[in-house]
Amino acid sequence: MFMERIMNKNYFHDFIKYSSLNVLGMIGLSCYILADTYFISKGMGADGLAALNIAIPVYSFVHGCGLMTGMGGATKYSVSGGRDGTIITVSAIIATVLAVMFFMIGCCFSGDLAAALGAEGTVYTMAETYIRIILMFSPAFLANDLLICFTRNDGAPKIAMAAMLTGSISNVILDYIFIFPFGMGITGAVLATGMAPIISLLILSIHIIKGRSGFRLAFLRCSLRPFGSVLALGVPSFVTEVSSGMVIIVFNMLLLNRSGSIGVAAYGIIANISLVIISVYTGIAQGMQPMVSRAYGMSDKRGAALVLRYSLTAAVAISIIAYALIFVFAQNIAATFNSSGDELLQTMAVPGLKIYFTGIIFAGVNIVLAMYFAAVECALPAQILSVLRGLVLISAAACILSYVIGINGIWLSFLTAEALSSAIGAIMYVILKQNKAA
Fold it and tell me: pLDDT tens for residues 123-136?
């Protein structure tokens, strides 16, 4: 009994250490876009806000691919005890291929992407600029995501957090400088965002230069299995990030048909607050992952389950506090991003905030549970849960409820999708427990 209490205390201490550092880092990372939203709303009004919201899915896709490669590889790296150099090599190759692909798309097809996402007129010009530059910085984003994940799993969560926060703070400072004193508009906003991962990489390089890392490249055999393994375990992280972008696309299309660019701008406020809250859950999940993977690698299923319990408790507690703050200060939040004082924008955004975020408690549970499945190398349930909550259910709910209820149905679809996903995730967890796989 005494030894069990000591083990519980150690797990709790490590959970607080890893999760708090990752939550701080992820909040900082999410401020890339939040800072853009604030400064663009001040400098370019509702059109700038609409353009940013149309372009955000592209950033989400790039960042999602970085997390897929980084988290998938880092999970395998942690389970192996940091002994398998092929994992780092495979992850680096995947990231390089993706970086080249995104860079070429940015050079050649940014206008087509902006048009396909619904941008027109002035909004199109700004959205095309943002998409083109963000894709040209994709090698920096992918390298940064990869190194942050591996550094965290290499026993250096403080360096990972410092890198994320330094990049984010620099983004906020450069946003202000480029948009206002330099008058660079949307170009300045996206340049600030693109330079942030470069600054973050400089911090991460300390872990390698000082010889503290266990990173080693290795010769690869002619097999696709390692590539598939890394990608399979990274899918939940990919879907969690990309789903935000996919949902934005679906919501933008529905809102453009019902209320034009003002509706898109109102959702832009909601979407960017959502990115910050989701980043907190992602921070908890990513902080949990090295501990769960390590416990799983040592066949300590009780320890893995204990860390999961801590993570779920933290996610639920944060959800309650976050929703209370959003409900009470919805008017103030909307007004902060409504620099022109547009009454219609305010009227749409305030009830949207209150309805949409009723689903965050279920979102937190789903993100943590999906990461847990991946951390114990149960890729299929992690993928099912992530795809259901992030794409299938919310897209279906938004289309159906918007037809039945109208704009409030769009806001309500988030709660509907996340609640259904939580029920499915709980069933899968119980099945895994019964099969002694969790």
Answer: 899 999 999 999 99
